[in-house]
Each structure stands twice: as C-alpha cells, then as structure tokens.
Amino acid sequence: MQKIRNTVIAVMVIALSACATDDPNRRAKTGAVVGAIAGAVIGKQVSGGKKGALTGAVVGGLAGAATGNYMDEQQRAFEAELAEEQRRNDLEIQRLQDESLKIDVSSEVSFDFNSASLKPAFLPTLDKVASILSRYPKTTVTVIGHTDNIGSEAYNQALSERRARSVMNYLIDHGVAANRLDAVGRGETQPRATNATEAGRQLNRRVEILVRPITSD
C-alpha cells in the first residue's frame, strides 16, 4: 500500500512540476494529474491490488488529459471565431477551474429592453456558437439568463427564463442536439455589479452560455 501511495505521489510531483503557468498545455496536464489520482483509487478498489492501482492511474491520467485537450481546442475555436465580438466587448469567454467554458453575453447586444426576442444583429454570433458546439459534441450546454433589479423580482425571473429559452431554442434550431441543452433563469439574484448605477445594471443584464465537458464516457 505504501508503494502505491509513493507511486501516486510521484505521478503528482512529475505532472505538477510541468504545469507552469505559461505552459499552453497546463490544463491538460492538470487534468492528467486529477485523473491519475482518481484512476489509482478506482483501480485499487476494483482489482484489490497494486497492479490495479497503477493501471488505474495510467488510464485515469489519459482520460484527464484528453478532457483538458478537448476543452483547450474548443476554447481556441471560440476565441478565434468570436474574436470580433470580444473586441467590441459584446461578450467574454472564460475558462473555469472545472474545465468548463463560460460565454458571457451582454443583453444590450442580444435583446431589446424588456424583450425576449433575439436581436437580428446578434444572430450571426449565435450561428458561430452553434457551429462550434456542433463540432464539439462531448459537452453539455446550459444557457443562464440574468437581469438587473428594475421591476419586480417575479417579473425579472420570468424574463430571464424567456431569454435563456430563446437562446437555447435558437441553438437547437441550428443543429445543436436538444438533449445537450438546458435553459435556466436567475432573474436578479446573481448580479455581477451594483444595481445602483446604470453601468452596473448593464453588466447585470446578460446571458451566460456554460459549456461543460462530458467526463463519463
């Protein structure tokens, strides 16, 4: 058992030492470390021996690295094809700690005031998003609507849900499998900034597209 612990520790030290902050493959390597640890534990439980633990570490590491690489590629695709939208500050693309991608879209460019109908000028951007999501099917997609605090809480909740569904339905209509998609509304409950100023309220009126890797395969 001590040898197994030493092996897992050695895998962690080697992999983490390669995960420099400026390393372009840092996320894949980090995924490999996490996968290796999980794989070692699972392998030990399944086989009841050292061989199972070591095999689990290797297999788990490959699975973790593959997930990181997959999301790296998808992120590069989003950043390349949505570069103009980012330059205009129409949207932001973030990579989260759990390997998910979050695309923050201002409602100023996606919806008219008090409306859940997509603006025609926003449709080419959604076309790009749908195309990339279709090319990377090993992800789930949650569309999350948010509002400022102008109006009643109940009204804002309903508006955020309608806007999220509008984006979700557009993605479905443009080739993204419906079973990968979900739409939820957060209303005014998760502001990014203060609602005391117009600038803050504008930041709070947004739609988020959360793209998560499917790791069960």
- CATH third-tier fold name of the largest domain: 60s Ribosomal Protein L30, Chain: A
What structural class do helix, strand and pairing data support? alpha+beta
Flag low-confidence runs.
7-16, 32-62
Overall mean pLDDT stands at: 80
Quote the beta fraction. Answer: 5-15%
Signal peptide: 1-20
InterPro entries: Bact_OuterMem_StrucFunc, Gly-zipper, OMP_bac, OmpA-like, OMPA-like_CS, OmpA-like_sf
Domain OmpA-like: 97-215
Protein name: Outer membrane protein OmpA-like peptidoglycan-associated protein
What does this structure look like?
Keywords: Cell outer membrane, Membrane, Signal. Residues 1-20 form the signal peptide. InterPro entries: Bact_OuterMem_StrucFunc, Gly-zipper, OMP_bac, OmpA-like, OMPA-like_CS, OmpA-like_sf. It is found in: Cell outer membrane. The chain is an alpha+beta fold and 217 residues long. It folds into two domains: 2-72, no CATH class; 82-213, 2-Layer Sandwich (60s Ribosomal Protein L30, Chain: A), CATH 3.30.1330. It has helices at 2-17, 26-47, 50-81, 83-87, 107-110, 123-135, 153-173, 198-204, and strands at residues 91-95, 101-106, 139-146, 181-185, 206-213. It has a five-stranded mixed sheet. α6 (123-135) crosses α7 (153-173). The protein is globular. The protein starts with a helix and ends with a strand.
